[in-house]
Amino acid sequence: MSTKPFRPDVDAPKYEGKYAPYDIIKEGTIAIVVVGLLVVLLATLFGSPDERAITIKTWSNADPVDFATTALGELNGTTITAQYGAPYNTAAPGQNLGPLKLAQFAGVTIPVNTVRDFVIDPLSSQPYNKNLSAALAQWKGASAAQQSSWVSNYTKGASKMTWSNGTITVPATNTGPVPTMINSLTAMARSGALDQALVTGGGFYTTNYTKPLLFVADGTYLANLAQKQHLLGSQWGMMNETGSYPGQAWLWLYTFWYQVSPFSSSSNADVQVSALMGLLSLLLLLVPFIPGLRSIPRKVKIYRLIWREYYRS
Length: 313
Fold this sequence. Notes:
Elements: H1 24-46, H2 56-62, H3 64-76, H4 102-106, H5 114-124, H6 130-141, H7 144-156, E1 162-164, E2 167-169, H8 178-191, H9 193-199, H10 210-218, H11 221-228, H12 252-257, H13 269-285, H14 296-300, H15 303-306, H16 308-312
């Protein structure tokens, strides 16, 4: 016989009560039917809309001015991607957790140069076009200062950008090849060729959608759609991933923290929330080994509700 002392928060006492028959098949069937009906009812009332995936082709056809404005931002280095920092570039220090410079420590693991990757290389992949070829040759043959001057002059008139008869027009002078490049990229995007070029830029057989996703996210079109669906962080929205089960329902706890101070106003919210969720996950795993915390189920006595018939007698 064991002489080990009884530990009330760990050891289960020997059961000495009565026994009663229990039909687990019946109970399980009832549970499945009830839950199934609730799922169908709630999915009908609150189900997520089945939205098509947003592509650069979709975006550029729906709002060519926003696309062209974003393409110009990729050229002048003012988009979120261009200024993000690690893991894409060295334009900013990136995310950190207190004194730990996590982004800098990891470094640039997915190098993205928005001028080259989003504009010049895709345009260079197109079939021969006299005007486009001349524009690219002029751009590549110019100095960095000259390129910057052309883009700066074009940017000054970008607030009055218009779309008419299949052409992007900006009232600006001394812009060099920039107008031709922006119009050619817009036409390329509207045809769907830019989606393909950004995906296959690293090889023909690839499923790396990082670049087209970054490009789309740099514009305002996707954010405006998200706002209409109440999906912005400030709106506490969430939508199940179309065509995938179970979707993103498990992300609710992550998105919750983004609404709570100090995360809601922190520039390092991503890494802070990830660290907090990692800590909470570790705490959950260690519950059986933490004195006091592991005793909560016994102290709150929720089990008496589950086995209420037994305790009623």
